[in-house]
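Same chain as my last thread, 140 residues:
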Amino acid sequence: MKYVALQHEKIEIGLLSEKLINKNHGGINLFVGTIREWTGDIQTEEIRYTSYEEMALKELNKLATEVEAKWGADVVIVHRLGLLQITDVAVFIGVSTPHRAACYEGSRYIIEHLKERVPIWKEEKDVDKTRWGGIDADNS
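reply #2:
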């Protein structure tokens, strides 16, 4: 089972978690990425996520399919789009597998590759200026 989505509405963690319950799986790993206020000395006010949605959904489906095949997992990936405030949930990744090690590995695989492959862009509005792609991508 896999479920992927992009949405402007609030991410409901409980409802998405329930999709991962499988009588043959003994572990569920959840990664919930939220908007933090501070990154080092830089204070964030809000973040806007935009996307090339058709391509993003295609890549999210590929990631879910890869994890299903490699670890025998059920996978849920949901990313928020639009303007998010501090503490809002930006991304939900859930992986269920028969054993816990595969849950951790599958979840990590998705978040690391999501950032590399899925065309979702982050416009971070900090108190000093606006940054695209986050602090690490800031070349100024």
